[in-house]
Amino acid sequence: MLPDYYERLGIRASASQEEIRRAYRRLAQKTHPDRNPNDEAAEARFRRVKEAYDVLGTPERRHHYDQRRNQTASAPPVTAASVGETGCVSYYLPRVGVGLLAVAAFFVVEAVDLWRMDDPRVLWTAVLGVSLGVGGLSVFLLRLAPDAPPDYAVRLSTEDVRVWAERRLVLRLAWLHVDRVSVEAASGRLNLIVRPDAVPGLAPSPPVIPSVAHGERRTRLTVDLSGTDVRRPALHRVLDAAPVSFSPPPTDAAR
Hints:
alpha+beta; Helix Hairpins; PH-domain like; five-stranded mixed beta sheet; four-stranded antiparallel beta sheet; 8 helices
């Protein structure tokens, strides 16, 4: 759920900007790691305080946060898992082709009467050549049809977005570090504009993260949900409730 930044700073939701600044300075001095050299948890507490001030200390972000604060109960997290049924064309046809190729090779060997050759070296050279040819074509056909579709998942909540690829967490990004997110109506892609220090070294992880463009001031990345079972209304409810600037597709915005 959406974190309560007012509670973190120990202030009321009606506090003025000056009260927010004073509360932050007091807590920052109290929790700063330099003042607590023997406390391993001090850095984590300081980050939580700074995160709250980064939102409440900016009037525009605070206004956006306040608008979303009471909406989180109606926006549960959304988990989108990859779906990809391997049908006849993409899965069975190449494998049937491999079987037919082996049968065709057998008939070719019979047609040229390869087994009646007198020279054993010529015989085995021919057999080896046919075997390598059939094997190479088989490998090529099977590479066109992997045994299973890509395994990935995306979880979006009012706090962050997380992406797993091959059961490995490749992205965990808090909305606090996202300046803007938009959804492409046709493709189902999420386009995020992110602070570069939030995703240092992030690389593309196709097909779920097809592109990452690092810049000096902003990083642009895409999360592709077109191959998942996510439902658009639930996705939009989460993004509406999250503390981030969200641009819905034109078709949704017009409704």
